[in-house]
Amino acid sequence: MSRDMPEATNTPHGGPTHRRWRATGPAARCTAALHAWWARRHGSAPPAHDTGGAPPPSAAAGDSELWRMRTTVKDEPGALAALCTALAGLRVDILTLQTHPLGDSTVDEFLLRAPAGTDLTTAVSLAGGADTWAERADAHDLVDAPTRVLRLAARTAQDAAELPLALRQLLGRCTIRSRPAAPAGGSPESVPAEGSLQDTVIRLRAPEGGVITVERPYLPFTPTEFARARALVELDARLGPRIPRGRDVLRLPERDDVCVRRADSGDLAAARAMHERCSPQTLRMRYHGPAGDADRYLNHLLSPRFGRTLAVQTASGRIVGLGHLLWDGDETEVALIVEDAWQRRGIGGALLARLVSMATEAGCAQVYAVTQASNTGMVAAMRGLGLPLDYQVEEGTLVVTARLDAAAARRTQERGGHGERIGRP
């Protein structure tokens, strides 16, 4: 899409490569605001029985389903007991329970195993629960909350690019966006040092000085969730910039071996030099228009805050190819550029296979690439993944979406590797 860069972006791309453009207290003070905050949530309550896109429950005898359910009860003796008794009467097994105190009420969050077809909402309502929300769960939800948080913290400690994914897994279905500290043509967004919580929106100061916004449809965030998210961001800030330093050797026909490794903003000069060696046609294919202002957004593309970048490097240290896996709100984009002299050697396909494998490991359901119909190399690389593809033309630009699953991703990695694994990028 040959559009100019927006005045202020809150997706990582910075250039005209993406298909969607979006405009965008301390404990003592928090306590006083809890009642007003929770009272405002009634207007945004979701449908009481949100199945999260799951098929209608089966009524077959003996079938059971996993559910995540959240409801509000009065903070008084016996309130939780009445709720549990009502669920037990329906032969519902309570697997885990978390409580979120809110002064004179408590938000109780359950992981349940219920007989198929159980009307959870009615039973909970009759037992004193209010503002009940439920969605289908899966086996991944069986991990208890402290263990899950510790695992997310460990992942974040290893790789700065994990922060958006860790927040998404911590808080459930939500959209996470990053906004630079000083957006081009706009004024900086003001966020208190301790962050802010407003119903379904969390805003936190990003470690590099920008703003991280987390939005969740319908379901308001609790102060407990806000505190967990803030702690994860604070951990990330204390650890500073970091990426894994492993690398793969990629064996190419008729060329010396090259390596594939993770890249970040420290590679800005080498990435700029590669762009200067690329032909105008290659730059047009990558950026869908003039790329004279590549310096304005290369730093964004290389930042681990907005995704992951793989670099192809020669024995002399020259970067000859880049592959980006970019977190676009609640979607994931893949993008490639290979220097002209190194094209048609299998580098693009190898990069794409690794990016797709990384997306699968991150729990992404699909990835999309924005390109032109004339970019036969990118189209062929997407087809070479062996994954189900969807093609869509938007404003003269071809958007190819690949649906991911673990087995297909493993086959893709095997086809695209062709190299000796030295370490994990």
Structure report:
This protein has helices spanning 27-39, 79-89, 120-126, 145-158, 163-171, 223-239, 268-277, 280-287, 294-302, 347-361, 376-383, 406-417, and strands at 64-74, 93-101, 105-115, 130-136, 175-179, 196-198, 201-205, 211-215, 247-250, 258-263, 307-313, 319-328, 331-338, 366-371, 389-394, 397-403, 419-421. With 425 residues, the protein is of the alpha+beta class. Among the domains are: 45-142, ACT domain (Alpha-Beta Plaits, 2-Layer Sandwich); 247-421, Aminopeptidase, CATH 3.40.630.
What structural class do you assign from the helix and strand content?
A: alpha+beta
Low-pLDDT sequence parts: 1-61, 415-425
Assign an overall shape.
elongated
Describe the sheet with the most strands.
6 strands, antiparallel
Main sheet strand line-up: 13-12-11-10-9-17
Along the chain, the helix and strand elements come as: HEHEEHEHHEEEEHEEHHHEEEHEHEEHE
The CATH C-level name of the domain at 247-421 is Alpha Beta
Calculate the mean pLDDT score and round it. 77
| Assigned CATH superfamily of the domain at 247-421 | Gcn5-related N-acetyltransferase (GNAT)
Instruction: Tell me the Rg in angstroms.
Output: 24 Å
How much helicity do the residues have? 25-40%
Number of DSSP E strands: 17
Strand content: 25-35%
Rounded to the nearest angstrom, the distance between the terminal CA atoms is: 30 Å
